Amino acid sequence: MKRFIYSVAFLFVFASVLPLLAQKKGMESINTNDLKRHMQFLASDELEGRDTGEPGLQVAARYLAVQAESLGLQPLDKDKDFLQSYYIQEKAYDRANSGITITAADSSISVSSKPFYMFPEPGGDHTLIEGEVVFAGYGINSEENAYNDFENIDIHDKVVLIMNRAPMNEDGTEAQFDNSKWTGMQNFQYKMQYIFSQQPRAVMMVMDPKSGMQSIEDVNPAVAKYLSKSRGLKPEDEESEDSPGNMPGMVLIHRQVADLLLASAGKKLEDLQLEIDKNLAPQSFLLEGASVKIELTMETKDLEVYNVFGLIEGSDPKLKDEVVIYVAHYDHLGTDGDGGIYNGADDNASGTVALIEIAEAFKMEKKSPKRSIGILWVSAEEIGLYGSEYFAEHPLVAREKIATVINLDMVARTKTKEDVLSTRDGLTIQGGDSVKVIGAMQSKVLMEINESSLAEAGLVGNYQYNNLTDPNRYFYRSDHISFARKDIPVLFYSTGTHRDYHLVSDVEESLDYEKFLKMTRFCYKAGLNVAQYNGPIKVDNPMSEW
Asked: What dihedral angle (degrees, nearest 10) is formed by the CA atoms of 477, 480, 485, 487?
């Protein structure tokens, strides 16, 4: 694989985009032309969205390694090629060897090969669930609404069949309960609190007939795709592989399965829903003599992926043993299956490109800063922060010598009118000279350096999302968290999530290069100020004590 990515990356790099070192010093070497040149390669269609385990990501890794070598960074990995290899274990549903079998009271057997989805993810390669079935309506027990689908049934050690949503109006557009939590796909969070307390064997959820949906694929194909495949760090000790324990499984089934089950008892799901909705009275019952067997087989394979790391040695005889590490993830989401490519220009080709320019700026200085500078491009962020987690567990420099980690993730956009008018929830995009700042809570010294660096650059820090109790948990959602958990002080700079976040419209043409340039130069100066600080970067509020 390394031979493949070497050859492809060199073909692209030397044909068109390998940068010539500008004859400028430090910050002046960071310029729009270089940002754009690197961006147009890393966010190009040819890299097919840089998905974990796919060739496009491997080409991007080699491209970054070539940049590190051309800039004169020092490799610390065992092969001296800037690539830290690790493995992602991918598990995918084996549909050919999976299925649902229904046995009716008269011993007749029906088999459905319609796709189903199970979570939490099974712990092994083969999962078998079988047992008696109880139909429990919408699966709701709500004192507030004086409604209980479980009033006269026992679901302990049974497979429970429930519908999505709640009792609906005649055309199925509104729930009859005056509570929005029952109307969308998220309602299972509320339902399962009670259902799991009764210790069923499993829960099967089906789209209710009034929804017009047959399966989760009709609701959101991306969710279905996500549930049918999982990727995570390969366990170093196979016996340590995570297991779901005794938690009952939830199975999202196709309407065909529910209809086959209920037909064995002479019932129809559509009729049962109409009766419940008409009288607001549960129609729950045990399917006498019927049983269901759910078999799920998983295929497992290992994907070799890379972090890319290079070092710039510091100039102070004592402080050079300490390292200020810049980090940015270079992976993204791949393709949408319908010809669309998630180019991920802002997320996070922008942080990736910024690190190339920052590394060049440090190398162009007449003298290196007092502390050493590490440039770390990590992979597998989008599927679980696995690249940074692996590096934090297997650092290429002594962990206790990592003075600070500065994370750059989405640094090339500015709030526009279109963002203001967008109907997307949770947008954090910053306007003007505002910067989204997360971190520095572990170190007063680091916060002071951060604030003085912002002022020096004419920028304003927005600390609104630097809050552990924020419902969107932004503090935990990028690569800095892997290091914060090791009590390494962190800073995370971003211009925020925008209307194109995780869409195929996050393309190079949508970037604001003026803001991109300003952010890259600021992040360079912030790291320089940390690296030049004479005193210790003291950790006076370690995360381990939070």
From this structure: -150
Residue range 254-264, pLDDT digits in tens: 999 999 999 98
> What is the rounded distance in angstroms from the CA atom of residue 480 to the CA atom of residue 325?
10
Residues contacting 69, CB < 8 A, separation 6+: 75, 82, 310
Q: What's the confidence (pLDDT) of residue 16?
A: 41
Tell me the CA distances in angstroms from 381 to 1, 160, 184, 308, 384, one per residue in order: 21, 36, 28, 14, 5
DSSP symbol at 280: T
The strand ranges marked E within 82-178 are 83-93, 99-103, 109-112, 117-119, 126-135, 141-142, 147-148, 159-163
CA atoms in the 13 A half-sphere facing the CB of 440: 24
| Cα 423–Cα 428–Cα 432 angle in degrees, nearest 5 | 110
**Cα 482 to Cα 141: distance, rounded to the nearest angstrom:** 39
Euclidean distance between CA atoms 459 and 432, whole angstroms: 9
Residue 19's pLDDT is 40
What domains lie within the chain, and their CATH numbers? Answer: 2-19+27-74+313-440+465-522 (3.40.630.10), 93-299 (3.50.30.30)
DSSP 528: H
Burial 8-35 (b: 16+ CB within 10 A, else e): bbeebbeeebebeebeeebbebbbeebb
**HEC sequence for 38-77:** HHHHHCCHHHCCCECCCHHHHHHHHHHHHHHHHHCCECCC
What was the pLDDT predicted at 389?
A: 98
pLDDT digits (tens, 9 = 90+) for 297-311: 999 999 999 999 999
Is residue 86 within 8 Å of residue 305, measured between CB atoms? yes
Q: Which residue has the higher pLDDT, 386 or 336?
A: 386
Q: C-alpha distances in angstroms, 144 versus 178, 281, 489?
A: 10, 15, 46
Mark 390-410 as b/e (b = at least 16 C-beta within 10 Å): bbbeebbbeeeebbbbbbbbb
151-164 pLDDT, tens digit per residue, is 999 999 999 999 99
List the one residue out of 446, 502, 160 whose CA is nearest residue 322: 446
pLDDT score at 245: 52
**What region does 172 belong to: left with phi over 0, alpha with psi -120 to 50, or beta?**
left
N- to C-terminal Cα separation, the chain: 42
pLDDT of residue 363: 97
pLDDT in tens, 162-191: 999 999 999 998 889 876 677 665 677 788
Check whether 193 has a pLDDT greater than 50. Answer: yes
**Helices 2-12 & 55-71, crossing angle to 10 degrees?**
70
Find where tokens 């650059």 sit.
457
Cα 442 from chain centroid (whole Å): 24
CA gap 144, 179 in Å, rounded: 10
Decide: pTM greater than 0.85. Answer: no
Helix axes 32-42, 351-364, angle to 10 degrees: 140
Per-residue pLDDT reduced to its tens digit, 1-55? 544 444 555 444 444 444 444 345 889 999 999 999 999 999 999 999 999 999 9
Backbone angles phi, psi at 62, to 5 degrees: -70, -35
